[in-house]
User: Which sequence fits this backbone?
């Protein structure tokens, strides 16, 4: 499948956005569309390497270097906790 055909299939799948990275497509859709988008692309002969829900910030924030360092340290500390499986942030 060529790039043009792949992009058309992605658009027809109901995906909200996509981009190509190292010959692979990163595809974004709403959480309630994930299964349908995935099923459509599999039916179009796409190989799905992974499929997951992620939190994307609606708005990113920029902080000065000192505050950024503190937030990053906090996020790393939270991520290192055994009970924490994922940490998200809107820090740019």
Assistant:
């Amino acid at each position: 499948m060529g790039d043009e055909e792949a992009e058309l299939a992605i658009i027809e799948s109901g995906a909200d956005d996509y981009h190509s990275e190292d010959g692979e497509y990163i595809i974004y859709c709403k959480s309630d569309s994930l299964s349908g988008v995935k099923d459509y692309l599999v039916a179009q002969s796409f190989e799905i390497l992974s499929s997951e829900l992620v939190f994307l910030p609606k708005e990113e924030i920029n902080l000065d270097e000192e505050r950024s360092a503190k937030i990053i340290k906090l996020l790393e500390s939270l991520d290192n906790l055994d009970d924490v499986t994922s940490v998200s942030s809107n820090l740019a």
Q: What stands out?
A: The chain has a mean pLDDT of 93.
